[in-house]
Amino acid sequence: MIRVTELRLPIGHAPEALEEAILKRLHLNSQDLIKTEVFKRSYDARKNVALAFIYTVDLSVKNEEKVLQQFSNDIHVRPSPDTSYHFVANASQVDSGAFLRPVVIGFGPCGIFAALVLAQMGFKPIVLERGKQVRERTQDTWGLWRKNVLNPESNVQFGEGGAGTFSDGKLYSQIKDPKFYGRKVIAEFIKAGAPEEIRYVAKPHIGTFRLVGVVERMRQEIIELGGEIRFSQKVIGFHIEGDQIKGVKIEGHDDLPANHVILALGHSARDTFKALHEAGVYMEAKPFSVGFRIEHPQSLIDKARLGPHAGNELIGAADYKLVHHAKNGRAVYSFCMCPGGTVVAATSEPNRVVTNGMSQYSRNERNANAGIVVGITPEDYPGGPLAGIDFQRALESKAYELGGSTYEAPGQLVGDFLAGKPSTEFGSVIPSYKPGVHLTDLAESLPPYAIEAIREAIPAFEKQIKGFSMKDAVLTGVETRTSSPLRITRGANFQSLNIKGLYPAGEGAGYAGGILSAGVDGIKVAEAVALDYLPQ
User: Which residues have a Cβ under 8 Å from the Cβ of 37 and sit 6 or more positions away?
Assistant: First the structure.
């Protein structure tokens, strides 16, 4: 096939206009065109240009070699790369007499794709998920949001679908992906019911409610292929003999023998991190970020980012990505921006407050929100691999206290935050966080260097997005779960540096950040596990 890039069309173009543009671009007649597939569609909404879609298209044509030769000097006409997925092994190649089924701990995006690919290769994985099925989990999560009642094993962090279920459902990443594993992730989501457009839009997303059904159908495929998903089974320890994993200990259940264990834990499995550390598994502290959620009217962001094109339904709600390097050496940046979304209660531990952002597929809520976070390093929390967890917990406990000790979150208007005075009443922006926001002074909620850096960054972001520092925009604290505070380090074979058969994977192990990258890492680790089963 041939790939053609930089095809520009008006955003409201007729369906047949794309084919006409292809024929014109390649000097072809319609009978020469066999098949067309849109690989990517982005948009150009700069204020000084006509609103336009920009297409990358893969196509089959008659006399393909002749066409490629004719455009050999054109960088926008090239052979299409092979983006199809190829399985690396099959369980039929393994001696069944010595076969122990692989175990996957955790059923978030990484665990789902690890289990799915293993099942598709015939390895019949066993998945251990400490939380509940996604619909039961959703009810428990609403229990915190509506009734201030936390279930520590079934919440935004724990349960089928992982933390990504209660997010914007973003499916784009900046990871290097030379083997196009990301296309496999997207294809599986579409097969499970996600909208077809996520295959080609520049910034695909699914949204929370749609993810629920998608996750359920992926679970069903794993089961139909011989896999097992065991919910409410919390791993509390590990059997290790010498340098080899031999099994896992499960709370309230018999131990499970295993010599291939994938750790798809997620970034909040703090008790499991502790159990791994006590078992001698090598891990190290790593940088992460902490900060607040900021909320503006979505209309303000649309106008600032899209100008005269704001409100165009074909573009949808605008997003942003911001970075500021503060004078004190700290980097401040926007994180997990949720257009037309809500700020959600995301704690997994009693008497602590954690915020996160979430959007539905429609992205039509009144406010835009994003994390405004400050980078920190192990030098800020010395004390070993688990010290970052203690650091997070201290901030989350303080936020619970500042919020009134009811799971309400502490909040402050941006104008008051910049002026260094407590807020007493809301302005035009009503925060979306449930159970509610308790106005206070957020200066006490983060270390002084973080407060100083954020106070410097917000006016700097105003230069990029007019209105960003509006006085009655709302800050809600605290955002602490941006990524895992540690890395369970692995080697080139994807196994733990010191424990054979143990495969750290995804966000919790420090190898992903978001749904797509976690899914990609799950595929890579599943392949490594499958290959390890094969005879040398």
Answer: 57, 58, 59
